[in-house]
Design goal:
- The structure is a single chain.
- The chain has 181 residues and is of the alpha+beta class.
- It has helices spanning 46-56, 100-115, 121-128, 150-158, and strands at 16-20, 25-30, 35-37, 72-80, 139-144, 168-170, 173-179.
- It contains four helices and seven strands.
- The strands form two sheets. A four-stranded antiparallel β-sheet has the order 5-4-7-6, with helices on both faces. The protein has a three-stranded antiparallel β-sheet with strand order 1-2-3, with no helix packed on it.
- 25% of the residues are buried.
- The structure holds the ligand Cn1nc(-c2ccccc2)cc1C(=O)N[C@H](Cc1nc2ccccc2[nH]1)C(=O)O.
- The ligand Cn1nc(-c2ccccc2)cc1C(=O)N[C@H](Cc1nc2ccccc2[nH]1)C(=O)O binds at residues 77, 79, 87, 131-133, 136, 140, 148-149, 152, 170, 172.
Amino acid sequence: VNMTDSNATGLPPGWEVRHSQSKNLPYYFNPTEKNSRWEPPSGTDIEKLKLYMARYHSTSGLVTDGAQAPGKIRALHLLVKHNQSRRPSSWREAEITRTKDEAMSIIQGYEDRIKRGEVSLGELALTESDCSSARKRGDLGYFARGDMQKEFEDAAFALKPGQISGVVDTASGLHLIERIE
Ligand SMILES: Cn1nc(-c2ccccc2)cc1C(=O)N[C@H](Cc1nc2ccccc2[nH]1)C(=O)O
């Protein structure tokens, strides 16, 4: 693969790969046509593109086409802890004193807003989640069965990519889960 030519990624003429900071994802942009898309424009040589991405993207940030190890999924979650949580403390609040019932009404309010499309789970997790993954919009990365608490795992693996769970109760607190891969 001649990676020095101007069209290093083998994209059709006029197209270039850019990087979306907010989603930490590559996207495809055509300045002349002034349009952009998440999927590579047709005719792209996927092998060349993967080489390009591997060369220009740190592998940790490399978003694959879901070609992660089989049996692994990726999900975001929003956690509301309460005074019975295993660790009733978080980056948001040194000592979490709300009751489980209060946590339930809080997270049900979030669930309504997310499912009405008013806000995304990731956006809400950023400010409201009691998990330290909040700073990554709740992104837990890829995980397999056996990695997470059982109730969380069962709920997450029951989702299809793009789906959002109902309220999931674990020793950590109450969660909403959005499976993304
Ligand atoms: C499983 N995990 N990943 C991160 C994480 C991921 C990405 C970036 C920073 C932190 C934090 C955690 C974690 O266990 N956090 C706990 C809360 C918690 N308990 C969980 C149970 C199941 C799934 C996620 C969960 N998160 C905490 O902060 O008290």
